[in-house]
Records
---
Amino acid sequence: MIVVMNIDATKEQIEDVARRVEGFGLRSQVITGEERSVVAAVGERREEYKQSLETCPGVAQVVPILAPYKIASREVKPERTRIKTGSLSLGNGHLGMIAGPCSVESEEQLLSAARAVKQFGATALRGGAYKPRTSPYSFQGMKEDGLKLLAAARDETGLAIVTEVVTPEDVPLVAQYADVLQIGARNMQNYRLLEVAGETDKVVLLKRGPSATMDELLLAAEYILSAGNPNVILCERGIRTFESHTRFTLPLASVPYLHAKTHLPVVIDPSHGTGHTYLVPSMAAAAVAAGADGLIVEVHPDPSCAMSDGYQSLDFAQFQEMMELCQRVANAVDKSFGAADTAAVNGSANGETVST
Ligand code: PEP
Ligand code: MN
């Protein structure tokens, strides 16, 4: 159920409703909108709970949430969520550009990529220190040494760090270094990992599993949200189909579909979504045109020598060209790639949800 509060409901009235919800043995979550607050009451729905909540002071109405996911749904929060952490700001008109190598490989590789992507307009740096690889014999990542290099790159460039965490046990360590915890496609339904990421105050970038439906993606997001973390970014990175000319099939309709169903920002990954460098710029531009809130793109100083995913990585000149194209498309849809405002850059590195 959603308890919709009056526009002039007081903080005490909202807290009282949340307390009453918890008293029924339901989970409560206060969602503060621009105009009014709502309290999501998640759990068994009973007529007597509804009637009791309707009589609470400050309550406008109590309505059922029809979607299987609750806190993620637009029924609970019609306004788009904007997520800010350090230099990254995306959602509700703000475009984020997360760029960098697939894997952190060395100080020189990472710092040169960080400087280049920053110069050409990236608003966050990506780089995997823990790599979930299809083969156990492939490069598994530099682990904590890679995290240290990412932190050094943030110190030098000011770019927020997006990096993957693959197990619940690693969350505390990765969260010490990262601004954004990436949960990869292979782990989208690792429910314990989602819960543990939901217990942190870091932004979580949740990638769609290659065979997951949209409802499954949104229910995976719900695990993070219901654990108390409102800072979730969804990422479409392509799904597995019968088609083999691309590594995955990248459905851009996911962007307007998700925008219709959820208030959470949506990012497109044209690198994994296509698996070929030459296809990345067009799909990046198309994603911006389709209304994506951001992009995550693989960029490497020398893709031919990359230890992972070189065949889909851009070099610096290709990234610059892609950014110029995406900027032009962004202008056409009244958006811009921009760093977060100064207060956020200088403020806490932790995620801050902004309802707009
Ligand atoms: C990655 O971002 O390098 C990655 C492993 O992505 P995905 O989880 O989408 O395969
Ligand atoms: Mn990759």
---
Amino acid sequence: MLIKIARPGDCRENEVTDEDIFLNRRQLLKQMGFVGAGALLANSPGAAAINLFGDDNEKRFQTRDLEYTPGSESAEVLTPKAKVISHNNFYEFGTDKRDPKENAQEFKVNPWQVRIDGLVEEPMTLGYDDLFTRFELQERIYRLRCVEAWSMVIPWIGFELKSLLQQVKPLSSAKYVAFETLYDPEQMPGQRNPFVGGGIDYPYVEGLRLDEAMHSLTLLSVGLYGKTLPPQNGAPIRLVVPWKYGFKSIKSIVRIRLVESSPPTTWNLLAPNEYGFYANVNPQVDHPRWSQARERRITKGGLLSNNRIDTQLFNGYDEVASLYQGMDLRRQY
Ligand code: MTE
């Protein structure tokens, strides 16, 4: 059987053309007179429930407002929520950027279980409510740069993966962390039909070295823009590793396994010459089929208002550089 394998690079420019009203929640709160809005949100339980970004999609999908500790102010322009939730890669729901929003609305995320096991002293299973109550939720405004040379700036809500790993107590033999997405062909058309799912051998899998997983920037996200994640963004829980290309940020996770050696990863299995295990954002290492030197930052408007900017090493998160000291990042891409 001949299957057309869609690559994350097969992205068309005209997929991001809709005009949206851009609202930066923080700017808006300030304009409304909430000086020091961060402190206000942190201290009053109801405050995070202000829904400035409601839309039809949220009404159809079960969402709840999250209480969290807002992070530091970002000097960058946030990508409008309407774009964050409508321009997605989630091949289980189709390979076109518009497919996940279209096809994931009935995706059932509660009940949900995440199993954390492997080389750990205390394996654990988290239920849906645990995802929102057992760890300290924070808002983190992160840039996420896709291997396709576009990027967004998103206010994620989540907790540090480190805080979960510390609870299960990795054994000294654990060197890597393997992640797995739900396998449920009944709910995920791309898993039923290889023409819909891009020929990927599901479930989608990803991995990190243990020190990468333990880095305080590495987030398990359960929400964005003050709400639980929409299904197309990886509900109820997904990874966000902001210094790596977006495909490392695996969605709808059901299993996290501590292992001894480098685990298989979906895009590396599919095209090893194009996608390595590390996948650190690096403007000096081109993808075999296109340059990675620049990126299109998706902001408020149509094509002309999307900025083209230089891509930065590690997506600008210089604090991770020490993790890769002594490595040849051209070979270990
Ligand atoms: N996780 C799963 N399970 N399936 C996918 O197809 N796509 C990856 C990543 N996580 C993907 C996934 C890719 S290629 C990117 S760029 C990001 O999710 C996109 O995240 P976003 O749609 O929330 O922007």
